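INPUT
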Amino acid sequence: MSTDSFSLRGIQRACRSCSLHELCLPLGVSDTDIDLLEKIVHRSRPLPRGKFLFREGDPFTSIFVARSGAVKSFTVAPDGSEQIIGFHLPGELLGLDGLTEGVHAASAHTLETVSVCEVPFDRLEDVARQIPALQHQLLRLMSREITRREEQLLSLGKQSPERRLAVLLLSLSMRFSQRGYSATRFLLPMARLDIANFLGLAAETVSRLLRRFQDAGVLAVDGRAVDILDLPELRALAGAEGSEEPAPPSCA
Amino acid sequence: MSTDSFSLRGIQRACRSCSLHELCLPLGVSDTDIDLLEKIVHRSRPLPRGKFLFREGDPFTSIFVARSGAVKSFTVAPDGSEQIIGFHLPGELLGLDGLTEGVHAASAHTLETVSVCEVPFDRLEDVARQIPALQHQLLRLMSREITRREEQLLSLGKQSPERRLAVLLLSLSMRFSQRGYSATRFLLPMARLDIANFLGLAAETVSRLLRRFQDAGVLAVDGRAVDILDLPELRALAGAEGSEEPAPPSCA
DNA sequence: GCGATGCCTTGACAGGCATCAATGCCCCCG
DNA sequence: CGGGGGCATTGATGCCTGTCAAGGCATCGC
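OUTPUT
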């Protein structure tokens, strides 16, 4: 027990330092194993806003973890139009889609000044081979990436613009709160155009929706600053909404 | 060389019998390794049309490979609306999204009479641990699932309905042809409503688009029978289209 | 063989969202 | 401090596509 607890603390310390907790935190691995993992991780210097971590088509060698600052990843259609795949907050992985063909399937672009940890994938596979729990965790993480995209597909294909925006706001709220920030007041790391692109909408529509939410007393928006005034109502908008009932006291 | 060639034949035979080639074909694994893999695979009896392979929320224990017949997988929104994630033709995998939470994130429904191979995932992980090449292949396959969904996201978010349909038809064409069927004449395994759902459209829109393609001389459609008359033009519709140029001789 | 059911097609219509355009704001930079 | 560019908001307009409705056509079951 004490050893376990000590190991865990070691992990938390090790990962806390580079926000790699998605990869190693849930594991019951020993300190020496962690050392193994730590050895292969590169910590990069801060990258300014508007730079590429990698581009679609670049040879795939590493996966990345945002350490501080937000990143967007996106693919480009042959006609040049872009689709944002996701926003990556500190602690979140990116780059796992490059394994298929050995080249990145999406590009990653910094939304603000960003620090990342880079994990060479072949080395990670080696280490994972020695640590079954890490192996399993790696598979789980890939599976989660699949699930995440499936949810987004559902959103783009079947949900109203209103609901899509509500879901995104809730997702950001939850993720910020998990990282120790306020769940109700935060700064959007991305531009309106990025939000619109991600949600499959026009920037103007996002603007109008935000206004509508504001007029309804659900949000207070000032530029990129968001204050969620009525979280239950926002949840209702994201979920059970459909008929225009003002939503009962909210429990679902 | 002769041993290699012999091994490869062994693999092909083994996989041919259950269409598992996506999992093992590209591997340089020995006959005994294949035996290991073969041992854990269950071959199911044929399943009639309209049955569930698994449902969203079911405990995740296995991944599946369609052996014959087509399957659709889809998720359900809280309000009951469905989003089809993908169609799975013989030889194609499904179920890889269940690992995250230990329950399937999507449901799988047979579109016609279907035979599947079932591969218990924990056993697969065991075997993979003993065969590094298989391990790598497993990760690659998951990565490909991610990539596939990213492409679909691009389609749903940024492409015109016309292009979405063209892309789907091309995809089916390619996949049928890879399986030894005609690339230009085939039967759609799914209903119009399924196509529409998958593409984020109304069934009527799909109908109208098919008619438009037909009037343009690109397709001949009769119920579920499709005959691609002008493959280059269909490619143009799927890709470079955008301006209404009748598309030059087509090379892209 | 006949009715019923589901699927597909076609038409009419309205509404929502994209598009275009103009203005304002803020921040960066000169 | 003043100019410029990017970003955000707001308004006007129109098209596309979803929705509703009806009809045709196969297949299946009785």
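end of record. DSSP finds nine helices and eleven strands in chain A.
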